[in-house]
Amino acid sequence: MSSTARGVALEIINKANSKGSYANLLLPKVLEKSRLSPRDKALATQLAYGTLRSQGTLDWLIMRYAKKDNKIKPKVMDILRLGAYQVYYLDRVPDSAAVNNAVELSKAHYPKRVSDFVNAVLRKVSRNKNKVSFNSLKKDFAQYLSIKYSHPLWIAKLFLETYGKRKAEAMCKANSEVPDINIRVNTMRISVDAYEKLLIKKGYKVKRSKLCKDSMIIKPCGSITGIFGYAEGLFTVQDQSSTLVGHVLNPKPGESIIDVAAAPGGKTAHMASLMKNKGTIIATDVSSARLSLLDSLRDRMKLKIIIPLAVDTRRLNLYVKRTVNKVLVDAPCSGLGTLARRPDERWRKTEKTIHVLSQLQLEMLDSVADLVKKGGDLVYSVCTVTKEETEGVVEDFLAYHPEFKLVDIKNELPAKMRTNSKYGIQILPHQFHSDGMFIAKFNKIKRTKLKK
What we know:
Rossmann fold, alpha/beta, N-utilizing Substance Protein B Homolog, Chain A, cytoplasm, about 450 residues, about 15% strand, 16 helices, 12 strands
């Protein structure tokens, strides 16, 4: 294991690119085992996430100065990316230091000719960084978005075709920025006002969410577990658009709830808090390992009404034999609303998966439809922005299930916020500096028999 921040960052970048490792899961484990100081851990995090997030732009810059016929080995390319990120994006790191550190990293793995190559390319990047202009790329606007904001071309095209130039650029820009740290206050343990005062007293900068009254943005952050109140269960990290899902479902004390695809449990815990720990939540997920994360969150937040169940949603009717007041289907999706928070995800996604996922989403809704009581509610949410996974799924579900009607959710939204889809709300990443999220709500108007 590397003993330097840049070495750790290179390890994360290389494993994400060459082995498909998830940076957000791998980095905390590597940092925990390292002997880096808190300051160096913060630097390693910034370098790893920043390089992965900006990788498309960095590759474009690098290849302007590398010979096109020169086949660059994957790890050498990662070293170049790490160096170029510091040169082009980080003013506080002197260019000479960034170049020299990249050269030293290459020397540790390759012969001198490789380190000479790394040195030559990065010095050219440094000399010419103030001359870089993306305006000439605007003739092909999708390519412009792809290169300037570091998105795969197919994603840039999808945003452009779906939302037009102005919104597409705003979305790409938001996805290229460092996301805020959003926390949700556990109002069963402490009021939002009281916790805000305690955080400010401890030296944190706090900003209330515009989407949810129990959500706030906190700076500086550092280690999540080091934030005041973590061990006591006073808060959990949850994006504000995800927190809004719980408010739209609007669970009440004493109700029975099913939350499918529930792990790691942020929305489940929020619902339990809104229910004041009274009632029942059956939290299902196909992964037992992921449900263990929900168990940990449940225990830390002192929540007693959550019953975990490891099962595929499409087989849920074999295990649950009674109807419930409300069901949440926060379905697996393409995650194109979370690209800022998961910087390496954009490079592993493919357009083909969107259609496959939309079919899975519809199957999940079909599977839980009979479990909703007459008069009960069903909420569908996905952290994406594609029409096929959002409005397309809702259209198909309503066509197949006339026993449900669409609910106008305006009363569950903030006062100044309006629904912007005929089926619910589509939050885009740039609007609140949050994850992109689609939410629709249905009410069951006719009773149906449970499938055997």
